[in-house]
Structure formats: C-alpha cells, structure tokens
Amino acid sequence: MAYIGRFAPSPTGPLHAGSLVAALASWLDARAQGGRWLVRIEDVDTPRCPPGTDRLILDQLARCGLLPDEAPLWQSARTERYAEVLEQLKLQGWAYPCGCSRKDIAALAAAPHERHGELVYPGTCRDGLHGKQARAWRLLTTADQAHTQPLSIDWHDRRLGAQRQCLSTAVGDFVLKRADGLWAYQLAVVVDDADQGITDIVRGEDLADNTPRQIRLQQLLGLPLLRSLHTPLVLGADGEKLSKQNGAAALDLSSPEEALRQAAMHLGLTLQARGLPELLSEAVAAWPAQLKRWHDAAH
C-alpha cells in the first residue's frame, strides 16, 4: 500500500513551536517512505477560526519548505459528506440523539469522573430522550447495541507501543454532531482520512487518546485502520504542553532554518547541514534511525 500522510492543523491561531514539530514529523515520515504528504485545514469549529489564519498557516509551512503534494482540503467545505456518514451510523443503530446539557451530566449522581476537562457521558439518552429535546448526536460505545458488553480498543503505536483503552468507561458515548449544529472532530477526521486515502497518522502524543474513538468509527464504517505514530510533546516553561489554548507564541520564522533545526532536535535529530533544502534532506536520511530507536525503546 502506498504511503499517504497528512498534517491537519486547526486554524484557531498561527503555528507555534509544537505545531512545527508535528508538521515536520509527519512530513519526514512520508518523505522517508517515498510517500505523499497532504495538508488538511481542520476548520470544522468555524467560530473559533479567525479569518485568514488558514492562509497564514500554509504560508508558515511553505517558508519552512514543507509543501503538500496536492491542494489542501478544508473541512468547512465537507459538511454534506459528514451528514451522509452520520445517517449511515443512525441506520446501523450506533448513533442516537442526546438531549443532555453539560449541566445535566454534571448533576447526575452516577456521573463518572472528568477526563481532560470533559465529563464522561453516562449514557443517559441511550434508551430515549425522556421528554428532552434532541441537542446532539452521540456514538454508542458498548460492544453491543443492548448496552451489556463494555468495549475495549487495542492498538499499536509506532513510538508508544501497545495501547489499550476501554471506551465504555474511559470515554463514554462521544459526540458526533454538537448541540450547536457543528460537526465533532472525531467524525470529521475519520471521514476525511478515509476519503483522502490516508494510511499513516503522525501527530503529537496529546492526540493519542483520540485514536480508540477513531478506530471504533473506522470499524463501524468498514474503513481501513491506519498506522499511527505519536511524537513527543513540546512543553512550555510551566511544564504544560505548548498549545494555542494556553497562549503559545506564534512560530518565530525570522530564521526558518533555525526553527526547523530546533523542531528536529525535539524529535531526536541533530542536524549539521546549512541551507533549507540540505537541512530537510539530512533530516529525511536520519529519520529511519530515529524510528528504530523509538521502536526499540517501546519493545
């Protein structure tokens, strides 16, 4: 199978140092395997995406020599496709309407703990809305539609090794279409990856937790499962991961070479070359050895 990878930024702000590490890793993995590298603008959460930020991100990538092999895809142009897939899941009996607000979930005495700042949904509306108005659509995360068997997902990451998550208890029934009418990330990313023929996911380790949900959707939709590689996070001075949400500074591209050199160093690559093309070429040649080091550490 021919390798197709992708970098999929959300245009809620310009790229920061952590973004460049993820972009470089995905680009290197594709180039080292003679594959194709795509860019997808994940602007499905349109209210959080300032106008022009998507073009700024594409310009930042281009200045670093990271050019996609075909025109970028925008999620905001694909809402009809997401609607088709939701209908398929409804017909299969795996998607159901939910009338619960966050306040409703928090008020339930039996509501489980929070995970990553979000309440684990206890399945209140699995058997009907109980007089509530439908707000969102959720995916059933039990192994059977009778809700009797918990569902665990096992998967393998090329850096982290063997992974397992019980979707039923760790995540709960997750949202496919939000109460505000916007499409949820989990549904959109699975549909887009399939439609673009993506074979490999290379992204930051903070997104590894999403993988079991995406695998479950792929299983239910009869889509190919993808290989994954989750890279080390870039942390700020406070020990928290760099992110747009915590105010990470925009990527300093006064010297694209130096920015790439620092990103490569975070990925375990010490580069000596001068000049952008030479630097990227050296990084591609060094990438397989770093993959082996990660593989050996995980096994």
Automatic annotation (TrEMBL):
Short motif 'HIGH' region, span: 9-19
Pfam families the record matches: tRNA-synt_1c
Superkingdom of source: Bacteria
Keyword list, A-Z: Aminoacyl-tRNA synthetase, ATP-binding, Ligase, Metal-binding, Nucleotide-binding, Protein biosynthesis, Zinc
GO molecular function: ligase activity
InterPro entries in the record: Glu-Q_tRNA(Asp)_Synthase, Glu/Gln-tRNA-synth, Glu/Gln-tRNA-synth_Ib_cat-dom, GluQ/Sye, Rossmann-like_a/b/a_fold
Gene3D superfamilies listed in its UniProt record: HUPs (3.40.50.620)
Cofactor: Zn(2+)
Tagged with keyword Cell division: no
Bound cofactor: record note: Binds 1 zinc ion per subunit.
Motif ('KMSKS' region): 241-245
Residues forming coiled coils: none
EC number from the UniProt entry: 6.1.1.-
Binding site for ATP: K244
Keyword S-adenosyl-L-methionine: no
Binding annotation for L-glutamate: R6, F7, A8, P9, S10, E42, Y185, R203
Family note: Belongs to the class-I aminoacyl-tRNA synthetase family. GluQ subfamily.
Protein purpose: Catalyzes the tRNA-independent activation of glutamate in presence of ATP and the subsequent transfer of glutamate onto a tRNA(Asp). Glutamate is transferred on the 2-amino-5-(4,5-dihydroxy-2-cyclopenten-1-yl) moiety of the queuosine in the wobble position of the QUC anticodon.
NCBIfam families: PRK05710.1-2 (NF004313), PRK05710.1-3 (NF004314), queuosine_YadB (TIGR03838)
Name under which the protein is recorded: Glutamyl-Q tRNA(Asp) synthetase
